[in-house]
Amino acid sequence: MAVLDDYQNVALSLMDWSMVDGRATVTVSNDHLADADAVVKRLQPLRERTPMTRAIIELPKLRLIASTATRNASIDLKAAEERGVQVVHTGYTSAPTIELTWALILASAGNLAAENASLCGGGWQQSVGDDVAGRTLGVLGLGNIGGAVAKIGNAFGIKVIAWSQNLTTERAAEVDATLVANDALFQEADVVTIHLVLSGRTRGLVGAAELALMKPTARLINTSRGPIVVEADLIAALKDKTIAGAAIDVFDQEPLPLDHPFRALPNLLATPHIGYVSRGLYARFYQDTVVNICRWLDGQAAARGDTPHQRREK
Questions:
Q1: Of residues 89, 135, 225, 284, which has the active-site annotation?
Q2: In principle, which of 33, 138, 209, 308 could form an S-S bond with 38, CB 3.0–4.6 Å?
Q3: 225 labelled catalytic
Q4: Is 234 helix (H, G, I), strand (E, B) or coil?
């Protein structure tokens, strides 16, 4: 069993892996490999994150892909089906992403990162933060996450407007939001927050034209997927101060390259894709993963006709 992309080195500590002792050897990788050939080389002895391409799925010994969350667009499901590789998923909760979205909204509005850096460096107040109460929040996508973000906005006394291609007036009303046209959302919102699934029609949805519609005092928040926003256009808008700032948790390339412009923009608050990184969600991921693996191993053993005693000996 190969555990990929365990950046925090927590995979073995958040779950009791003894359930698979004697049945599988577990190896954990704490770095990220984007190149398919490098992934194949690493897996030879034996998700958006490590891409499970056809080249990887065709590894002779690969039989099971245990992916976290309820879906993973980076898995070539057609190739897996053709090769008889089973793909299983885990449970999921959107709570960490919803919470981080509001953390980023409030931190960006209050310039908290800069104020903290000033304080830690021996300084004191450096800026005047923006209010959120009484302002307008524009939500792109009112699904489970966007809807919850909208409800919290109402609690702050914020006017909530929303848009997506299939959004209805009735759905918007369920979360006390007002459906508006796409252009109107960017023109009217003081904060635009993105909660759409990455697809062919949402890739590059927010670019130079949309950013140009925003107020110079407005801010963009993205905890969804990096490619929904055209990176080069956002960088230009922040450098030119077309908008006041942005707070993002997702990027076109992850981990973010060391020399990426996002690392040096003073009006950008960026976090390393931690919208799903919480102790509770990780525990669920790994607990469900171990259960999924044990079920698969039991099924393999049953197919061979092993008795429980024989399975324990193996």
A1: 225
A2: 33
A3: yes
A4: helix
DSSP states along 66-81: E-SSS--TTB-HHHHH
Residue owning tokens 């009303």 = 173
Q: Is 273 a catalytic residue?
A: yes
Residue 49: count other Cβ atoms within 10 Å of its Cβ: 16
**Taking a C-beta distance cutoff of 8 angstroms, is the pair 45, 60 a contact?**
no
Residues 89, 219, 273, 284: which is the catalytic one?
A: 273
* DSSP type of residue 187: H
Query: pTM of the prediction?
Result: 0.80
Cα–Cα distance between 42 and 161 in angstroms, integer?
A: 47
Amino acid at 178: T
Q: What's the farthest any 2 CA atoms get from each other in the chain?
A: 71
Please state, in angstroms and rounded to a whole number, the distance separating the CA atoms of residues 258 and 251: 13
**Which residues in the chain come in under a pLDDT of 50?**
45-48, 309, 311-314
CA distance 71 to 88: 9
| Structure token digits, residue 58 | 């065709």
What's the confidence (pLDDT) of residue 314?
46
The pLDDT tens digits of the residues spanning 191-213 come to 999 999 999 999 999 999 999 99
Is 138 within 8 Å of 193 (Cβ atoms)? yes
User: Token pair for residue 210?
Assistant: 């949309």
Tell me how far CA of residue 177 lies from CA of 85, 100, 131, 154, 220, in angstroms: 44, 21, 20, 9, 18
Question: Which of the residues 32, 254, 260, 311 is marked catalytic?
Answer: 254
CA dihedral angle for residue 122, residue 126, residue 132, residue 137, rounded to 10 degrees: -100
